[in-house]
Protein backbone atom coordinates (compact mmCIF):
# COMPACT_ATOMS: atom_id res chain seq x y z
CA UNK A 1 0.00 0.00 0.00
CA UNK A 2 1.17 3.52 -0.79
CA UNK A 3 2.45 5.54 2.16
CA UNK A 4 0.79 8.63 0.74
CA UNK A 5 -3.00 8.47 1.07
CA UNK A 6 -3.82 11.76 -0.63
CA UNK A 7 -1.64 13.83 -2.90
CA UNK A 8 -2.74 17.16 -4.37
CA UNK A 9 -0.27 18.75 -6.78
CA UNK A 10 -0.86 22.28 -8.03
CA UNK A 11 -4.65 22.15 -7.78
CA UNK A 12 -6.69 25.09 -8.99
CA UNK A 13 -10.44 25.40 -9.22
CA UNK A 14 -12.51 28.22 -10.59
CA UNK A 15 -16.23 28.90 -10.35
CA UNK A 16 -17.05 31.45 -13.03
CA UNK A 17 -14.37 34.09 -12.73
CA UNK A 18 -13.72 33.32 -9.08
CA UNK A 19 -10.56 31.37 -8.25
CA UNK A 20 -11.68 29.21 -5.34
CA UNK A 21 -8.62 26.95 -5.00
CA UNK A 22 -5.37 28.54 -6.04
CA UNK A 23 -2.42 26.29 -6.91
CA UNK A 24 -2.75 24.14 -3.81
CA UNK A 25 -0.32 21.30 -3.11
CA UNK A 26 -0.48 19.05 -0.08
CA UNK A 27 -0.13 15.46 0.84
CA UNK A 28 -1.59 13.31 3.59
CA UNK A 29 0.36 10.26 4.75
CA UNK A 30 -1.52 7.08 5.35
CA UNK A 31 -2.49 6.73 9.01
CA UNK A 32 -2.44 10.47 9.47
CA UNK A 33 -5.23 12.84 10.49
CA UNK A 34 -5.02 16.00 8.43
CA UNK A 35 -7.14 19.10 9.03
CA UNK A 36 -8.33 21.74 6.59
CA UNK A 37 -9.06 24.98 8.44
CA UNK A 38 -10.11 28.33 7.12
CA UNK A 39 -12.86 30.92 7.17
CA UNK A 40 -16.23 30.44 5.43
CA UNK A 41 -15.69 30.28 1.71
CA UNK A 42 -11.96 29.49 1.92
CA UNK A 43 -12.39 26.42 -0.29
CA UNK A 44 -12.41 23.54 2.23
CA UNK A 45 -15.51 21.77 0.95
CA UNK A 46 -14.41 22.27 -2.64
CA UNK A 47 -11.13 20.51 -1.81
CA UNK A 48 -12.96 17.68 -0.03
CA UNK A 49 -15.22 17.24 -3.06
CA UNK A 50 -12.23 17.20 -5.41
CA UNK A 51 -10.56 14.49 -3.31
CA UNK A 52 -13.72 12.42 -3.81
CA UNK A 53 -13.84 13.10 -7.54
CA UNK A 54 -17.20 14.88 -7.20
CA UNK A 55 -15.75 18.12 -8.55
CA UNK A 56 -12.93 18.28 -11.10
CA UNK A 57 -9.98 20.63 -10.71
CA UNK A 58 -9.19 23.01 -13.59
CA UNK A 59 -5.48 22.35 -13.12
CA UNK A 60 -3.26 19.98 -11.18
CA UNK A 61 -3.15 16.30 -10.27
CA UNK A 62 -4.93 14.40 -7.53
CA UNK A 63 -4.01 10.92 -6.35
CA UNK A 64 -6.07 9.19 -3.68
CA UNK A 65 -5.11 5.76 -2.28
CA UNK A 66 -2.78 5.32 -5.23
CA UNK A 67 -5.48 6.02 -7.79
CA UNK A 68 -5.77 9.09 -10.08
CA UNK A 69 -8.86 11.20 -9.31
CA UNK A 70 -11.26 12.06 -10.87
CA UNK A 71 -10.27 9.60 -13.65
CA UNK A 72 -10.62 6.54 -11.40
CA UNK A 73 -12.61 8.09 -8.57
CA UNK A 74 -15.12 5.24 -8.51
CA UNK A 75 -12.36 2.81 -7.62
CA UNK A 76 -11.00 5.09 -4.89
CA UNK A 77 -14.47 5.70 -3.48
CA UNK A 78 -14.92 2.04 -2.68
CA UNK A 79 -12.29 2.43 0.05
CA UNK A 80 -13.37 5.86 1.31
CA UNK A 81 -15.93 6.82 3.94
CA UNK A 82 -17.61 10.14 3.28
CA UNK A 83 -19.21 12.66 5.63
CA UNK A 84 -20.51 15.56 3.54
CA UNK A 85 -20.95 19.02 5.06
CA UNK A 86 -24.72 18.72 4.74
CA UNK A 87 -26.47 15.45 5.54
CA UNK A 88 -27.95 13.69 2.53
CA UNK A 89 -29.91 10.96 4.30
CA UNK A 90 -33.24 9.87 2.91
CA UNK A 91 -35.77 11.46 5.29
CA UNK A 92 -38.59 9.03 4.45
CA UNK A 93 -36.54 5.94 5.29
CA UNK A 94 -35.78 4.60 8.74
CA UNK A 95 -32.28 4.49 10.18
CA UNK A 96 -32.07 0.77 9.30
CA UNK A 97 -33.31 1.37 5.73
CA UNK A 98 -30.83 4.20 5.20
CA UNK A 99 -27.97 1.92 6.17
CA UNK A 100 -29.27 -0.91 3.96
CA UNK A 101 -29.61 1.39 0.93
CA UNK A 102 -26.19 2.94 1.51
CA UNK A 103 -24.60 -0.51 1.87
CA UNK A 104 -26.05 -1.45 -1.49
CA UNK A 105 -23.98 1.31 -3.17
CA UNK A 106 -20.95 -0.68 -2.08
CA UNK A 107 -22.41 -3.96 -3.33
CA UNK A 108 -23.17 -5.18 0.18
CA UNK A 109 -25.96 -7.73 0.67
CA UNK A 110 -28.70 -7.23 3.27
CA UNK A 111 -27.03 -9.91 5.36
CA UNK A 112 -23.68 -8.12 5.22
CA UNK A 113 -25.21 -4.79 6.26
CA UNK A 114 -27.15 -6.48 9.08
CA UNK A 115 -23.88 -7.95 10.34
CA UNK A 116 -22.23 -4.53 10.72
CA UNK A 117 -25.34 -2.62 11.76
CA UNK A 118 -25.00 -3.14 15.55
CA UNK A 119 -21.49 -1.70 15.60
CA UNK A 120 -22.53 1.26 13.43
CA UNK A 121 -25.51 1.99 15.68
CA UNK A 122 -23.27 1.71 18.72
CA UNK A 123 -20.73 4.09 17.13
CA UNK A 124 -23.44 6.72 16.77
CA UNK A 125 -25.39 5.83 19.94
CA UNK A 126 -28.50 5.29 17.84
CA UNK A 127 -29.35 1.78 19.04
CA UNK A 128 -32.81 2.86 20.18
CA UNK A 129 -33.56 4.69 16.92
CA UNK A 130 -33.08 1.89 14.42
CA UNK A 131 -36.74 1.91 13.37
CA UNK A 132 -37.25 5.68 13.54
CA UNK A 133 -37.61 7.58 10.31
CA UNK A 134 -34.81 10.05 9.62
CA UNK A 135 -37.37 12.86 9.47
CA UNK A 136 -38.10 12.09 13.15
CA UNK A 137 -34.49 12.39 14.29
CA UNK A 138 -32.95 15.50 15.80
CA UNK A 139 -30.29 17.39 13.84
CA UNK A 140 -27.48 15.91 15.94
CA UNK A 141 -28.87 12.36 15.58
CA UNK A 142 -28.90 12.77 11.79
CA UNK A 143 -25.29 13.92 11.92
CA UNK A 144 -24.35 10.88 14.02
CA UNK A 145 -26.11 8.61 11.53
CA UNK A 146 -24.17 10.20 8.67
CA UNK A 147 -20.94 9.58 10.62
CA UNK A 148 -21.84 5.93 11.28
CA UNK A 149 -22.92 5.43 7.68
CA UNK A 150 -19.48 6.53 6.48
CA UNK A 151 -17.98 3.45 8.12
CA UNK A 152 -20.28 0.91 6.46
CA UNK A 153 -17.75 -0.15 3.80
CA UNK A 154 -14.89 -0.53 6.31
CA UNK A 155 -12.99 2.34 4.65
CA UNK A 156 -9.25 2.98 4.68
CA UNK A 157 -9.75 6.71 4.42
CA UNK A 158 -12.36 9.04 5.88
CA UNK A 159 -13.16 12.35 4.19
CA UNK A 160 -15.17 14.37 6.69
CA UNK A 161 -16.51 17.85 6.06
CA UNK A 162 -17.31 19.42 9.46
CA UNK A 163 -18.01 16.06 11.10
CA UNK A 164 -19.19 17.37 14.47
CA UNK A 165 -21.06 20.51 13.47
CA UNK A 166 -24.47 20.39 15.16
CA UNK A 167 -23.47 17.88 17.83
CA UNK A 168 -23.92 18.63 21.53
CA UNK A 169 -20.73 18.64 23.65
CA UNK A 170 -21.25 15.06 24.90
CA UNK A 171 -21.78 13.71 21.40
CA UNK A 172 -18.79 15.67 20.13
CA UNK A 173 -16.51 14.20 22.80
CA UNK A 174 -17.88 10.74 22.03
CA UNK A 175 -17.14 11.14 18.32
CA UNK A 176 -13.65 12.49 19.03
CA UNK A 177 -12.94 9.44 21.17
CA UNK A 178 -14.19 7.13 18.45
CA UNK A 179 -12.26 8.84 15.69
CA UNK A 180 -9.11 8.60 17.80
CA UNK A 181 -9.73 4.86 18.18
CA UNK A 182 -10.06 4.54 14.39
CA UNK A 183 -6.80 6.48 13.94
CA UNK A 184 -5.07 4.18 16.43
CA UNK A 185 -6.10 1.26 14.23
CA UNK A 186 -4.51 2.85 11.16
CA UNK A 187 -7.34 4.86 9.61
CA UNK A 188 -6.41 7.92 7.55
CA UNK A 189 -8.62 10.97 8.03
CA UNK A 190 -8.91 14.29 6.25
CA UNK A 191 -11.37 16.62 7.92
CA UNK A 192 -12.51 20.20 7.77
CA UNK A 193 -13.55 21.93 10.96
CA UNK A 194 -14.37 25.27 12.55
CA UNK A 195 -13.73 23.79 16.00
CA UNK A 196 -10.18 24.61 16.91
CA UNK A 197 -10.29 22.22 19.85
CA UNK A 198 -11.26 19.43 17.47
CA UNK A 199 -8.34 20.23 15.18
CA UNK A 200 -5.95 20.49 18.12
CA UNK A 201 -7.05 17.15 19.57
CA UNK A 202 -7.37 15.06 16.43
CA UNK A 203 -5.05 16.40 13.76
CA UNK A 204 -1.45 15.30 13.36
CA UNK A 205 -1.04 18.10 10.87
CA UNK A 206 -3.29 20.77 9.46
CA UNK A 207 -3.28 23.63 7.04
CA UNK A 208 -5.01 26.97 7.23
CA UNK A 209 -6.58 28.09 3.97
CA UNK A 210 -7.48 31.57 2.90
CA UNK A 211 -9.07 32.20 -0.48
CA UNK A 212 -7.98 28.78 -1.67
CA UNK A 213 -4.35 29.23 -0.68
CA UNK A 214 -2.40 27.37 1.94
CA UNK A 215 -1.23 30.12 4.31
CA UNK A 216 0.19 27.90 7.07
CA UNK A 217 0.81 24.21 7.54
CA UNK A 218 2.18 22.10 10.36
CA UNK A 219 1.53 20.28 13.60
CA UNK A 220 -0.99 22.11 15.80
CA UNK A 221 1.39 22.67 18.70
CA UNK A 222 4.25 23.70 16.44
CA UNK A 223 2.00 26.33 14.86
CA UNK A 224 0.92 27.58 18.28
CA UNK A 225 4.54 27.88 19.47
CA UNK A 226 5.72 29.42 16.24
CA UNK A 227 2.94 31.94 15.66
CA UNK A 228 1.89 32.84 19.22
CA UNK A 229 4.44 31.46 21.68
CA UNK A 230 3.36 33.42 24.77
CA UNK A 231 0.50 33.71 27.25
CA UNK A 232 -2.74 35.33 26.16
CA UNK A 233 -4.76 37.68 28.35
CA UNK A 234 -8.35 38.28 27.31
CA UNK A 235 -9.85 41.44 28.76
CA UNK A 236 -13.44 42.56 28.53
CA UNK A 237 -15.79 44.85 30.38
CA UNK A 238 -13.99 48.13 29.68
CA UNK A 239 -13.28 50.33 26.70
CA UNK A 240 -10.85 48.18 24.72
CA UNK A 241 -9.19 51.08 22.96
CA UNK A 242 -8.54 52.96 26.18
CA UNK A 243 -7.16 49.80 27.84
CA UNK A 244 -4.97 49.22 24.86
CA UNK A 245 -2.92 52.34 25.43
CA UNK A 246 -2.60 51.48 29.13
CA UNK A 247 -1.04 48.06 28.58
CA UNK A 248 0.54 48.37 25.19
CA UNK A 249 4.10 49.05 26.51
CA UNK A 250 4.01 45.65 28.27
CA UNK A 251 2.58 43.52 25.46
CA UNK A 252 4.16 41.87 22.45
CA UNK A 253 1.00 42.34 20.50
CA UNK A 254 -2.56 43.50 21.09
CA UNK A 255 -5.67 42.85 19.07
CA UNK A 256 -9.18 44.12 19.57
CA UNK A 257 -12.02 41.89 18.47
CA UNK A 258 -15.47 43.33 19.13
CA UNK A 259 -15.50 44.24 22.81
CA UNK A 260 -12.64 41.94 23.78
CA UNK A 261 -9.01 42.86 23.90
CA UNK A 262 -6.49 40.09 23.28
CA UNK A 263 -3.10 40.79 24.75
CA UNK A 264 -0.10 38.59 23.90
CA UNK A 265 2.49 38.98 26.60
CA UNK A 266 5.63 37.10 27.52
CA UNK A 267 5.48 38.75 30.96
CA UNK A 268 1.73 38.67 31.72
CA UNK A 269 2.21 39.86 35.32
CA UNK A 270 3.39 43.26 34.01
CA UNK A 271 0.10 43.59 32.17
CA UNK A 272 -2.03 42.39 35.07
CA UNK A 273 -0.44 44.92 37.44
CA UNK A 274 -1.57 47.70 35.11
CA UNK A 275 -5.14 46.38 35.13
CA UNK A 276 -5.41 45.94 38.88
CA UNK A 277 -6.61 49.47 39.61
CA UNK A 278 -9.45 49.12 37.11
CA UNK A 279 -12.77 47.85 38.38
CA UNK A 280 -15.42 45.93 36.48
CA UNK A 281 -12.98 44.22 34.16
CA UNK A 282 -12.98 40.54 33.45
CA UNK A 283 -9.47 39.29 32.87
CA UNK A 284 -8.67 35.78 31.71
CA UNK A 285 -5.10 34.63 31.36
CA UNK A 286 -4.53 31.38 29.49
CA UNK A 287 -1.99 29.50 27.38
CA UNK A 288 -2.17 30.16 23.64
CA UNK A 289 -4.29 27.84 21.51
CA UNK A 290 -5.10 27.07 17.92
CA UNK A 291 -7.91 29.63 17.86
CA UNK A 292 -5.32 32.35 18.43
CA UNK A 293 -3.36 30.96 15.49
CA UNK A 294 -6.46 30.89 13.30
CA UNK A 295 -7.48 34.42 14.21
CA UNK A 296 -3.97 35.74 13.79
CA UNK A 297 -3.59 34.19 10.35
CA UNK A 298 -7.02 34.99 9.04
CA UNK A 299 -7.25 38.38 10.68
CA UNK A 300 -8.84 39.68 13.78
CA UNK A 301 -8.56 43.43 13.28
CA UNK A 302 -4.87 43.85 13.87
CA UNK A 303 -4.38 46.77 16.22
CA UNK A 304 -0.69 46.75 16.95
N1 LIG B 1 -21.13 24.95 -7.01
C1 LIG B 1 -20.63 26.17 -6.85
N2 LIG B 1 -20.85 27.15 -7.77
C2 LIG B 1 -20.32 28.38 -7.62
N3 LIG B 1 -19.54 28.74 -6.59
C3 LIG B 1 -19.29 27.83 -5.65
C4 LIG B 1 -19.81 26.50 -5.72
N4 LIG B 1 -19.38 25.81 -4.65
C5 LIG B 1 -18.64 26.66 -3.91
N5 LIG B 1 -18.57 27.87 -4.53
C6 LIG B 1 -17.81 29.04 -4.03
O1 LIG B 1 -16.49 28.60 -3.77
C7 LIG B 1 -15.97 29.21 -2.62
C8 LIG B 1 -15.50 28.14 -1.66
O2 LIG B 1 -16.62 27.42 -1.20
P1 LIG B 1 -16.46 26.18 -0.22
O3 LIG B 1 -17.80 25.59 -0.03
O4 LIG B 1 -15.38 25.30 -0.70
O5 LIG B 1 -15.96 26.92 1.12
P2 LIG B 1 -15.72 26.32 2.59
O6 LIG B 1 -14.31 26.64 2.94
O7 LIG B 1 -16.14 24.91 2.63
O8 LIG B 1 -16.68 27.25 3.47
P3 LIG B 1 -17.59 26.88 4.78
O9 LIG B 1 -16.67 26.99 5.97
O10 LIG B 1 -18.58 28.01 4.80
O11 LIG B 1 -18.19 25.54 4.59
C9 LIG B 1 -17.06 30.12 -2.08
O12 LIG B 1 -16.80 31.42 -2.55
C10 LIG B 1 -18.32 29.58 -2.71
O13 LIG B 1 -19.24 30.61 -2.91
MG1 LIG C 1 -17.58 23.91 3.65
TrEMBL record:
GO terms for cellular component: plasma membrane. GO terms for molecular function: ATP binding; ATP hydrolysis activity; transmembrane transporter activity. It is found in: Cell membrane. SMART domains: AAA (SM00382). Pfam families: ABC_tran (PF00005). The keyword Cytoplasm does not apply. Keywords: ATP-binding, Cell inner membrane, Cell membrane, Membrane, Nodulation, Nucleotide-binding, Plasmid, Translocase, Transport. CDD domains: ABC_subfamily_A. Residues 6-236 form the ABC transporter domain. Belongs to the ABC transporter superfamily. NCBIfam families: nodI, PRK13536.1, PRK13537.1. PANTHER family: ABC TRANSPORTER ATP-BINDING PROTEIN, ABC TRANSPORTER ATP-BINDING PROTEIN NATA. This is Nodulation factor ABC transporter ATP-binding protein NodI. It comes from Sinorhizobium mexicanum.
Amino acid sequence: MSMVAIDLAGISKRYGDKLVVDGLSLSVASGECFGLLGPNGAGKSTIARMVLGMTSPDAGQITVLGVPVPARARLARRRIGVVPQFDNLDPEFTVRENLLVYGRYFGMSTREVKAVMPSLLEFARLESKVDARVSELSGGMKRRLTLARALINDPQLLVMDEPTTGLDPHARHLIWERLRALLARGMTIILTTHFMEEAERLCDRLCVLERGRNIAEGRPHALIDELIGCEVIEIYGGNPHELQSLISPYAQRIEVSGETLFCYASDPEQVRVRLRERTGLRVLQRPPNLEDVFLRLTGREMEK
